[in-house]
Amino acid sequence: MVMTVMLGSTDLTLRPWEPGDADALVALAGDEELRRWTSHRVDGPEDAERWIAGQEAGWKSGERLSFATLTAGRVVGHIVLTPSGDRPCGEIGYWTGAPARGLGVASGAVELLTAWAFDTKTGPGLSRLELIHNAGNPASCRVAQKTGYSLESILPPRGAHEAEGHLHARERGAAPRS
Questions:
Q1: Phi–psi pair at 31, nearest 5 degrees
Q2: How confident is the model at residue 160 (pLDDT cuts 50, 70, 90)?
Q3: Whole-model pTM above 0.70?
Q4: What order of strands is seen across the sheet that includes strand 128-134?
Q5: How confident is the model over 138-153, as pLDDT tens digits?
Q6: Residues whose CB falls within 8 Å of the CB of residue 20, separated by 6 or more in sequence, listed in order
Q7: How confident is residue 39, by pLDDT bands cut at 50, 70 and 90?
Q8: Three state DSSP letters for the chain
Q9: Burial of 175 from C-beta contacts in 10 A (0-12 / 13-18 / 19+)
């Protein structure tokens, strides 16, 4: 499944991760700023191969629809849709590597994946999407707001991060803010 959109003069492509992406994943995943905000670790080629195989398994099961984010044909980030098994809802998560930060890649990827996730003809046809991020990450908050995800609540610390989280949500039919 490949989706493409133009953001200004930059091509943005979301496509499932492929085994050939392992080297790019290793290079991006070593970034300390990325490690600060994400819970997964990829520490070398073997980890990258396992991680990519896990993303492929997520597609096969339908439990985790994971995409590599590419600009100009280069992998620069990751975005994932985790559908809820019992409701027409899902959660979006993403990260952007250092070379692509501040260029609108994350918000473009979120908007593209959101449109697809809400589409009842070509996508899963979900009615609600949630985006959760560490409250101390203002860049993720800006991405959520820019793409029409309203802040709904402050979450207690969970998992690997010992900080509060923000729960943003968007309903099908809600237009993004600019």
A1: -65, 125
A2: low
A3: yes
A4: 3-7, 10-16, 65-71, 74-83, 89-96, 128-134, 165-171, 150-155
A5: 888 999 999 999 998 8
A6: none
A7: low
A8: CCEEEEECCEEEEEEECCHHHHHHHHHHHCCHHHHHHCCCCCCCHHHHHHHHHHHHHHHHHCCCEEEEEEECCEEEEEEEEEECCCCCEEEEEEEECHHHCCCCHHHHHHHHHHHHHHCCCCCCCCCEEEEEEECCCHHHHHHHHHCCCEEEEEECCECCECCCEEEEEEECCCCCCC
A9: exposed
Encoded tokens for 82: 């985790």
Give every CB contact of residue 7 below 8 A, 6+ residues apart in sequence.
104, 105, 108
Average pLDDT (111-126) is 89
| Pick from 42, 28, 44: nearest CA to 101 | 28
Q: What is the pLDDT of residues 15-30, one digit of tens each?
A: 999 999 999 988 888 7
Measuring CA to CA, how many Å separate 89 from each of 74, 78, 83, 102, 176? 30, 20, 6, 29, 18
CA distance 97 to 11: 16
Residues 6+ apart with CB under 8 A from 164: 134, 135, 154, 155, 156, 157
